[in-house]
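Ops channel
N.P.: pipeline sanity check, posting one input/output pair.
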């Protein structure tokens, strides 16, 4: 495994309101002391730097920093700037480092975007989610479509590298209208990256309770499939490369940070509920889990001796299967050289799916044909003998 490539995820837990589909560790914004948060972030970043040094990481090149949430665009730009300055003191930045900040498409964030850029942010991930007011209301978003388009038009004049998140296959959506809206949207804005996600009902969310009580409907598998392939084809026609199941980019504008996750490389997670995954000097996968409650995390990270919720060595078989499962999300597939053994693979199923053209092995990379990305989970279950559904 690569011992000199690293990403850092910074979690900001606060939002103005909680969206009904969201299962991320987010909380309604409250009063906080930016100086306390800066100290806590710095202490945890320093903690991980010391751990990496203890594991003989040398010449560490930081390829990405990602401010996620929550809504990190609610952070004071000065706080973001100070965090980046501190990270820069401890790590070598790759010359093409990607520094992303998640934002909502509102005037509140637009008014701060120049300051975020001055702080070092060079990529914005914009939570557009819906392309009309009906869909936005359904998703519990606070912005409307016209505000989105005005803000995005102005924002792309400030930040060149903008990624947009969209959610599709809502029960209130009409496929033809969605196709038209997406085509119009792509023609009007010069975004570099787009993440298109099917609405998934996540446990613990408001939508989950509504779904279980019969108050919320989801689309059929057949209709989802139509939405998926239609979206994929429209993006292809607009010169977007599908490099991952749900992610599309203009050439060379793929998400460096998320690719670290999909390739099972090293990242450190800083902030409430953030997870870190690091390969140690024994080639074991170590997971660090932070406390989820902001006040608990803050209290622990303001102390000299930092307490984490959990540190564990991931079981070897679990780690191997995760490498395969995550790598198969990518268009380029998973490098089989990353696996120390492949005994958990069902070779008969692998050969069967190869003959059907569903999967392929090329230059020792196992990949799913793009036409079957939408059944990724099914394929993984078929080729792994003892599939770990967790």
């Amino acid at each position: 495994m690569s011992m000199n490539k690293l990403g850092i995820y910074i979690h900001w837990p606060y939002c103005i309101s909680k969206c009904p589909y969201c299962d991320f560790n987010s909380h309604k914004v409250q009063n906080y002391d930016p100086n306390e948060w800066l100290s806590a972030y710095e202490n945890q970043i320093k903690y991980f730097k010391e751990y990496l040094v203890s594991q003989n990481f040398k010449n560490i090149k930081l390829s990405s920093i990602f401010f996620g949430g929550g809504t990190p665009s609610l952070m004071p730009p000065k706080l973001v700037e100070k965090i980046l300055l501190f990270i820069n003191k401890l790590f070598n930045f790759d010359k093409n480092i990607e520094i992303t900040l998640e934002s909502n498409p509102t005037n509140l964030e637009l008014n701060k975007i120049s300051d975020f850029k001055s702080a070092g942010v060079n990529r914005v991930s914009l939570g557009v989610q819906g392309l009309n007011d009906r869909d936005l209301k359904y998703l519990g978003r606070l912005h409307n479509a016209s505000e989105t388009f005005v803000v995005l038009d102005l924002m792309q004049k400030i930040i060149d590298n903008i990624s947009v998140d969209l959610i599709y296959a809502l029960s209130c959506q009409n496929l033809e209208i969605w196709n038209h809206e997406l085509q119009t949207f792509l023609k009007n804005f010069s975004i570099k990256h787009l993440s298109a996600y099917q609405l998934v009902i996540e446990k613990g969310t408001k939508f989950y309770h509504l779904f279980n009580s019969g108050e919320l409907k989801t689309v059929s598998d057949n209709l989802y499939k139509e939405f998926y392939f239609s979206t994929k084809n429209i993006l292809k026609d607009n010169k977007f490369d599908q490099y991952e199941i749900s992610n599309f980019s203009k050439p060379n504008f793929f998400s460096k940070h998320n690719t670290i996750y999909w390739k099972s490389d090293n990242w450190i997670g800083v902030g409430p509920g953030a997870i870190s995954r690091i390969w140690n000097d024994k080639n074991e996968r170590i997971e660090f889990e932070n406390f989820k409650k902001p006040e608990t995390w803050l209290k622990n990270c303001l102390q000299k001796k930092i307490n984490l919720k959990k540190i564990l060595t991931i079981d070897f078989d679990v780690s191997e299967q995760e490498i395969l499962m995550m790598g198969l999300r990518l268009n380029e597939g998973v490098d089989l050289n990353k696996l120390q053994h492949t005994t958990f693979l069902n070779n008969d199923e692998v050969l069967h799916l190869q003959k059907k053209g569903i999967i392929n092995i090329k230059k020792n990379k196992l990949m799913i044909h793009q036409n079957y990305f939408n059944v990724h989970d099914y394929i993984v279950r078929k080729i792994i003998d003892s599939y770990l559904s967790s």
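N.P.: looks fine end to end. The first helix runs from residue 34 to 54.
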